[in-house]
Amino acid sequence: MIRPTLRGVVVFSAVIPFTLLVLAWDPSLWGLTLDCGALALAALGADALLTLPVHRLSVEVAAPSRLPIAEAGEVTVKLSALQAKREVRFDILLEVTGEVRAPPLTTLTTEKGQWQSALPLSSSRRGVVTIEAIWLRWRGPLGLVERRKRQVLELKVDVVPTVRGVRSAALELANRQAMFGSKVQRQRGEGSEFERLREHAPGLDNRFIDWKHSARHRKLLSKEFRTERNHQVVLAFDTGHLMVEPIEGMARLDHAIEAGLLLGWVSLRSGDLVGCYGFDAFVRNYQEPGRGIGYLPRIQRAAARLEYRSEETNFTLGLAELNTRLKRRALVILFTEFVDTISAELLIESLQRIANHHVVIFVTLQNPMLKRLTTAAPSDFDGAAQAVVAHDFQRERAIVLERIARLGIYCLDVPVRGLSMSLINRYFDIKQKGLI
User: Fold this and answer.
1) Whose C-alpha in 4, 85, 201, 317 is 20 to 30 A from the C-alpha of 254?
2) How far does CA 287 lie from the centroid of its chain?
3) CATH classification of 54-160 is 3.30.470.20, yes or no?
4) Which residues contact 249 (CB under 8 A, 6 or more apart)?
């Protein structure tokens, strides 16, 4: 498609007042006015002929098939101008659909008829991003006309959750007592598998004294246990409307998935079985617990299929269904959110039922806005009112967390940046104590 530019329109439009002035001065010079109009049209036509034809332009676009959430990807664009005798300036724009931050209009100049560059592409929400087409615009040597080309692409990019902290976590956890890798090492602790007898020493738990063998050997002997490695760990994600709220550029659900995948990686390396479960008003997804580090991609795909929902979460249905599916005692990590004490009543009742059979870690994220409102010095009446409301929200939140903790459930209410490591530390504490 070819069309005049703003410069071409201005040049052609300038002929009109000029011809009117000439005719007003001497009507016999009407032929000159026709020549001026023809000259302007000839300039537009010559510029159009010198503009690079569309059929001589070759466009190649390559996009990644998968894009980690909140991380920048690259869309490679390669232009080849066949038989181009001069440098051509191109304006490039990607036509993208989906929750994505598409690159802005990019201007480039080909060198020797070829150009290649990478355009940034990132998304803060999971899903599918489609690069529908690429738009190109270039002008003639006089800048009077421009050509446009739209090339259909239909490139699909899956925005998937990522485990950004795996490498750093591996370095930080390398010195812990848990051994990762293919070699099996027995880890002593307060587990459930008997390891050996040892002489009782001050500071050891008196519950582990073996009175029978102590009487036989005439000295106090304590049982020492080793931690088991075949526990079931279920990552349960609440996908209701409260988990869609963004915190630090990402939805609560995406922060939970990132921390859950990191914990799943650690658990699989430790020899446990890891599964995934998603629910809101209905059960959305369930991935059976499996073992081995090769099972992590299946967990990642299951987590990627968890959609953002606007329904209110039905904790009675979701946790009861999970309790039914689990045939043996497991560690259930529930990533969820609540508003106040009234809406949390059904949540507490459902947690009590599942905590009778399983070990539960209740995970929520702190809202940094509430902390800022309560700690900042109010400058006016509105600021003081906001601080009071924020304080009431935090007080009710603390009441609910205290009630949940009294049920024997481990509660984690932490900022976003401390979620992953706090969760991993709590996981190791539970395993070392043999509570599963």
Assistant:
1) 317
2) 20
3) no
4) 70, 124
131 - beta bridge partners?
96, 155
Choosing among 3.20.20.150, 3.40.50.410, 3.20.20.80, 2.30.42.10, the CATH entry for 166-183+228-432 is 3.40.50.410
- Residue in 196, 191, 360, 158 with CA at minimum distance from that of residue 270: 191
pTM over 0.85: no
In sequence order, the 6+-apart residues with CB closer than 8 A to the CB of 198 are 221, 222, 224
Per-residue pLDDT 10s for the chain (436 aa) are: 787 788 877 777 777 776 767 666 767 666 666 667 777 778 878 878 877 778 888 888 888 888 888 788 888 888 887 666 677 788 888 888 877 777 788 887 766 667 777 888 888 788 888 889 998 888 887 888 888 889 898 888 888 887 665 555 555 555 454 444 434 444 444 445 556 677 877 767 677 777 787 888 778 888 776 555 688 999 999 999 999 988 888 899 999 999 999 999 999 988 899 999 999 999 999 999 999 888 988 998 888 888 899 899 999 999 999 999 998 899 999 999 998 787 788 899 999 999 999 999 999 999 888 888 888 777 788 878 888 888 888 888 899 999 999 999 999 999 988 898 899 999 988 887 777 7
